[in-house]
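stage 2 :: seqdesign
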């Protein structure tokens, strides 16, 4: 699990989120940490939390969860576990990295709970009496050769049957498998062998082990002495933990501390080793994205070669059967008899068809055999049956003609050869089209520059030297130079210079962002004007760009619930088609023998058996399970990829499916409907006290709080003192600090008890509010401002008015949602007066105010009980419980904190318009999925009866098998192309008018004007 909150340390993450429960068997106490309740509950009490209605017992399980970076991660796990039927209660402790689950053992077991935690993206280990631990790891494989849902389902089923495999997910479109397994029972090598036994090629992507590991290719390392020299040289480097070199010396794996060393040091060390006359070279092993592209290109090349060679033989067979027979002189030569009734044309067709059937088409035999051996049937089975029927009957006719003076039969060699050619062409086109569906990931990866300029600095920070290196070799704490017009090579902090950076490729925000010393910059963004020196803070998989790519990849692996329809059908599809084909052949053959139809229906060159055989083969080859299997995943791939390019990160098919059902959108106020940057706009002092002294006292208490209002007060106090932001010299030291969630804080400052907060805070502290103060509060609340009361020694001494401006697009967004048939509700912890004023300004009629974070989640559940599918839009911090409870949680304004685990959809930009984009994109994507299913089902429902000859008695129309094969090849291609149309998705036109309106209201300047205003031009 990577660092999901790069802007925050663990402590500050913990302070921002709600309840954390820690179970202790010996102590039952209750305390507070920064205003968030921390409960210690004895395990015996936990076991008695709930009793099942049917009298069955309950069981408690404790899991050690690794990978949590903040309490949002804990919320995500709770959401996943509580959804499981049979779970009574679940609590996740971020501080202790543990999950405590109470469940009914009659309904589920510990492994299923562990799988749910793994689904949330974390590794879970069951704690069995704190002694026996189950070591679970995640292995990712690339699997090539899968052609339809039946293939992916059979691989999934076979892997899940292996001892030690806890869960497996195989994605047909990405050709990847994610396997959760117990390393004590099975290894990655055994998993790969199991896949290859089924007839597919498997390649290891990663094993989910320690991320601080790098693998290098070695050249020139052949002897035992050389291997030992390389190993000792690497182990001598500071920060290297472990080194493993393969026995033949071609690869090396190094585990290391990224703060001390990295891949560049390893490569340079190996290149400098002197071992006699031997010269060593090292290079990075191709990363995941490169492996995928290489695999795709290899597959395209393979199918292109197969189709080319197949065409070389199939086209002459087709010409001999369908064209030359109508040219008189050529026909006479082809009809010339060689042996008895065996003609030259028949012999040539057999010679040309055989290589296609048994050499080029051998892959279908292998695939069919391995599929049937594992108890399933895929498209290879249909192809093998259809082409075998045509080929071997034709071969039988050939032998009979050569051994008989009277036999007159027809061969179907062109059917066999053309079928294989068209199917190979369909596979080639499908692979090319599928490559387009993952274009979004490729474009994201292309944002990263290939090279970077590495600076060597002296102790005074002056440049001693600079050189160009590969961006893959950047290490943490490297100093890098970024010139104007170049992309930033990694995430980091500006240590020198000033510029404007275009971050639209990550956030979709077109306006350049000013960057100065201390500001963060991100990999793949474009430096536009000034030169910058950047200190690398996040490299490789830690960067924001890599996190976005990984999130999109995970979303494309995640199956939508609607895909279960295709998965269920695929299990029975092929056996059903084989049965229908046999019944078709039997019905036509029997009808012909008993004279149920006139002899004139039979073509001159055929008899009843051959006519029936053609109908049966046509049914076999026209049926296409591929279209069903590709209907959902291709649309999800393109939809999530398009969303990523628009700054909308959708976490998989389930989020897409849920979002299109949304009927109610619940907004948080602060940071969602408002700008999230509150400022002090007025102060009313009730006692004779200087404003600076008043704010010194208040800021001394509030400086310990993470709340945005507290930060606004502290910032205002500093401005009054004209201090630097980091200077705290005039603030007093606060003691006994206590935060009350949703109300305020109290502390002892300079010997005085200070209470800062809202009405509830004052009343709860036994402090009365004078009538004139209450009227003043009401007045400022009607102006959409928040009133903060300040009391010293139980007496109110002042009121601070805080204003947080409404986002300029908020009113228009609410209006558009209403036009889309969606109800908008605002839920906030702020007072009723301010909440109603803000709601009136943006056009929201339903307001729920003065609720705690947990109260927001309860309001969401109440709406769900009314039958509404609810989307919660929040800033991903104090809204985590509500984001978890909602059908669709949308974290807005996440910026580069793209891994907010509590949300189903992450809106990268701090822009409410993306709420509409997310819902509209999900609707368009799901409509495309439905359209794909209509086509896939309709094609088979219509194509199979036509191939079976339903129209033949009335119209005389008969579908030749090779034409049926061509139709089958194009059916799956059409589904992929249908999904690819989502690449051209454009957000609703109303959003364009919002942008124009905002630009006019805010008078946004052009980038050039902004640069001039900053003194950069």
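stage 2 :: out
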């Amino acid at each position: 699990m990577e660092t999901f909150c790069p802007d925050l340390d663990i402590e500050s993450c913990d302070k921002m989120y709600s309840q954390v429960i820690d179970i202790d068997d010996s102590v039952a106490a209750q305390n507070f940490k920064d205003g968030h309740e921390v409960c210690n509950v004895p395990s015996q009490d936990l076991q008695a939390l709930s009793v099942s209605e049917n009298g069955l017992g309950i069981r408690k399980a404790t899991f050690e969860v690794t990978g949590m970076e903040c309490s949002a991660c804990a919320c995500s796990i709770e959401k996943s576990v509580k959804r499981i039927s049979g779970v009574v209660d679940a609590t996740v402790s971020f501080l202790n990295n543990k999950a405590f689950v109470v469940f009914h053992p009659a309904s589920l077991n510990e492994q299923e709970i562990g799988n749910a935690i793994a689904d949330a993206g974390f590794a879970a280990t069951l704690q069995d009496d704190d002694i026996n631990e189950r070591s679970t790891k995640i292995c990712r494989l690339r699997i090539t050769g899968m052609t339809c849902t039946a293939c992916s389902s059979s691989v999934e089923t076979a892997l899940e049957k292996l001892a030690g495999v806890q869960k497996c997910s195989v994605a047909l479109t990405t050709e990847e498998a994610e396997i959760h397994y117990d390393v004590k029972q099975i290894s990655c090598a055994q998993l790969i062998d199991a896949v290859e036994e089924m007839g597919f090629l498997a390649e290891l992507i990663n094993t989910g082990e320690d991320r601080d590991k790098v693998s290098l290719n070695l050249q020139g390392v052949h002897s035992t002495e050389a291997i030992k020299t390389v190993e000792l040289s690497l182990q001598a480097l500071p920060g290297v933990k472990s080194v493993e070199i393969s026995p033949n010396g071609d690869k090396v794996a190094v585990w290391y501390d990224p703060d001390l060393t990295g891949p560049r040091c390893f490569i340079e060390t190996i290149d400098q080793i002197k071992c006699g006359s031997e010269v060593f070279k090292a290079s990075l092993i191709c990363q995941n994205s490169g492996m995928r592209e290489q695999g795709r290109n290899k597959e395209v090349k393979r199918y292109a070669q197969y189709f080319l060679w197949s065409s070389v033989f199939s086209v002459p067979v087709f010409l001999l059967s369908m064209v030359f027979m109508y040219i008189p002189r050529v026909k006479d030569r082809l009809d010339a008899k060689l042996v008895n009734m065996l003609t030259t044309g028949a012999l040539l067709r057999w010679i040309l068809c055989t290589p296609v059937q048994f050499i080029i088409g051998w892959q279908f035999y292998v695939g069919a055999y391995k599929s049937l051996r594992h108890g399933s049937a895929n498209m290879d089975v249909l192809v093998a049956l259809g082409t075998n029927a045509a080929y071997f009957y034709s071969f039988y006719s050939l032998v009979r003609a050569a051994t008989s003076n009277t036999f007159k039969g027809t061969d179907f060699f062109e059917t066999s050869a053309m079928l294989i050619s068209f199917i190979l062409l369909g596979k080639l086109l499908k692979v090319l089209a599928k490559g387009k569906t993952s274009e979004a990931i490729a474009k994201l990866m292309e944002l990263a520059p290939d090279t970077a300029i590495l600076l060597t600095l002296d102790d005074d920070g002056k440049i001693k030297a600079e050189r160009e290196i590969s961006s893959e070799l950047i290490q943490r704490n490297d100093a890098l130079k970024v010139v104007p017009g170049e992309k930033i090579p990694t995430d980091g902090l500006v240590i020198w210079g000033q510029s404007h950076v275009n971050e639209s490729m990550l956030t979709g925000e077109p306006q350049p962002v000013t960057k100065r010393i201390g500001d963060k910059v991100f990999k793949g963004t474009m430096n536009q004007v000034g030169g910058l020196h950047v200190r690398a803070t996040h490299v490789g998989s830690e960067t924001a760009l890599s996190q976005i790519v990984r999130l999109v990849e995970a979303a494309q692996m995640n199956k939508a619930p609607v895909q279960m329809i295709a998965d269920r059908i695929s299990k029975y599809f092929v056996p059903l088609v084989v049965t229908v084909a046999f019944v078709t052949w039997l019905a036509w053959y029997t009808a012909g023998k008993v004279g149920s139809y006139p002899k004139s229906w039979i073509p001159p060159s055929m008899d009843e058996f051959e006519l029936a055989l053609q109908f049966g083969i046509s049914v076999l080859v026209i049926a296409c399970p591929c279209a069903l299997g590709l209907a959902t995943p291709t649309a999800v791939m393109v939809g999530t990829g398009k969303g990523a390019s628009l700054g909308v990160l959708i976490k998989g098919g389930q989020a897409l499916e849920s979002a299109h059902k949304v009927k109610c959108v619940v907004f948080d106020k602060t940071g969602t409907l408002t700008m999230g940057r509150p400022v002090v706009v007025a102060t009313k002092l009730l006692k004779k006290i200087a404003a600076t002294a008043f704010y010194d006292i208040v800021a001394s208490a509030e400086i310990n709080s993470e709340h945005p209002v507290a930060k606004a007060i502290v910032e205002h106090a500093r401005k009054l003192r004209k201090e630097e932001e980091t200077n705290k010299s005039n603030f007093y030291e606060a003691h006994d600090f206590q935060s009350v969630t949703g109300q305020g804080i109290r502390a002892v400052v300079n010997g005085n008890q200070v209470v800062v907060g809202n009405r509830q805070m004052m009343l709860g502290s036994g402090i009365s509010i004078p009538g004139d103060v209450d009227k003043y509060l009401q007045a400022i609340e009607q102006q959409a401002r928040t009133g903060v009361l300040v009391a010293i020694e139980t007496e109110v001494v002042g009121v601070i008015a805080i204003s947080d401006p409404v986002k300029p697009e908020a009113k228009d967004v609410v209006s558009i949602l209403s036009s889309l048939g969606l109800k908008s509700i605002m839920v906030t912890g702020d007072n009723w007066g301010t909440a109603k004023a803000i709601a009136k300004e943006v056009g929201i009629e339903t307001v729920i105010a003065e609720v705690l974070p947990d109260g927001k989640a309860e309001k969401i559940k109440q709406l769900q009980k009314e039958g509404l599918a609810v989307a919660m839009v929040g800033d991903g911090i104090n809204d985590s419980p509500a984001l978890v409870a909602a059908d669709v949680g949308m974290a807005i304004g996440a910026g580069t904190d793209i891994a907010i685990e509590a949300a189903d959809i992450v809106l990268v930009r701090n822009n409410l318009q993306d709420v509409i984009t997310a819902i509209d994109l999900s609707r368009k994507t799901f409509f495309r999925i439905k359209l794909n299913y209509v086509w896939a089902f309709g094609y088979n429902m219509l194509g199979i009866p036509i191939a079976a000859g339903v129209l033949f008695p009335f119209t005389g129309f008969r579908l030749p098998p090779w034409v049926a094969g061509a139709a089958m090849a194009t059916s799956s291609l059409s589904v992929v192309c249908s999904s690819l149309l989502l690449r051209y998705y454009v957000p609703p036109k109303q959003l364009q008018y919002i942008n124009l309106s905002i630009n006019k209201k805010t008078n946004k300047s052009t980038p050039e004007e902004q640069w001039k205003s900053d003194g950069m031009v």
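stage 3 :: structure notes
- The longest helix spans residues 288-323.
- The mean pLDDT is 79.
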